Amino acid sequence: MPAPPLPTLEDLPSLGVKALRLQCGNYHRCWHRGSLPVEAIDLRQTIDDVQRKLVCMACGFIGGSAMPDWPSIGPGGVRIQL
Ligand SMILES: [Zn+2]
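Above are the sequence and the zinc ion SMILES. Below is the predicted complex in structure-token form.
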């Protein structure tokens, strides 16, 4: 059976998500974090597409993790432009 297509990010604004939380993929060496407002993202992508394209402003590492900044979690933490 083929895997179902990954959902795109288009639903996020209607779910109250205003940003993605980002973290550098260079684990153990760089813990740079940031957030990206949904207005700055092409929402026809999947979260995997976004993760592959992240470039860390601190260490230059390509690839990281991104997750929706759900409103129930709240802003919290230090926001750094990744
Ligand atoms: Zn980094």
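The two ends are 38 Å apart (CA to CA).
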